[in-house]
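input
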Amino acid sequence: MAMQSSHPVQLFDAHGPLSQKQSNEILSRLKNNDVRTHIFDRHLAFASEIVDSHLMVGNKVELLIDSPDTYRSMYAAMENAKDHINMEIYIIKDDEIGNLFAELLIRKQNSGVQVNLIYDSVGSIDTPREFFNSLKENGVNVLEFNPVNPLIAPKKLAGYPA
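output
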């Protein structure tokens, strides 16, 4: 049995709320892909009831498996960004690829696109702080996920040999 939302679901785009008719048409198209599992109905009801943000239209998800294709796709998506870039990454290094991304993120930030970067502390433990400081100094919002405290981290994570 699908959970029903206690109020009509309102969708938003970059310019604000869509009309209820527009929202219903989009939801109906999405529901047609549900394959009778009611997962979409349940997810939509939960999201509209508990999430303190708007449900946005115009998003796209693409599964990328191969590194060169993944990097090309990520770069193209960021290059084409018009309003904001929200990037979450496990490993970013001060290497050719990392610097290519950093230069693009800084250029986009300087052109008026808001850039937000979350990187993993453990995955990027060998990346110098200067790499991230350069991004911050150029206006990029940078957040280190789950910062490693070298005083309490296992020696292996703190950069010491095992």
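quick obs: DSSP finds five helices and six strands in the chain.
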